[in-house]
Design brief:
117 residues, elongated
Amino acid sequence: MVTMSEITEILGANIRNLRKQAGWTQEKLAEKAGISVPFMTQIELARKTASLDVIEAIAKALGVPYERLFKSQPVEDRTLTCNMQFIEEVYEQIAEKSREIMLELMTKASERNAPQI
């Protein structure tokens, strides 16, 4: 059974990913959804729960059905997917030593960007 805490974390991660895909700041999404920036921050960080009215306003601002915000897997970041395809192409074309360095850099970058749940 999924707990309320887990639902709140999923919701926050999906909102954050969709906002970033749109290239928006928290300020811009908060304004479009009609809520305060601190509240938007708290929702994304799963520190506060939002009412269904607020969730609907956020979904509308993002241009997605509200159900999408509750997917158990965070919404895929398309920018990251495109960047990974490019990186894989470059990786295949470089020397072994450069591959080791590139792999180390990618590992460090992915650790920094991992969602904090």
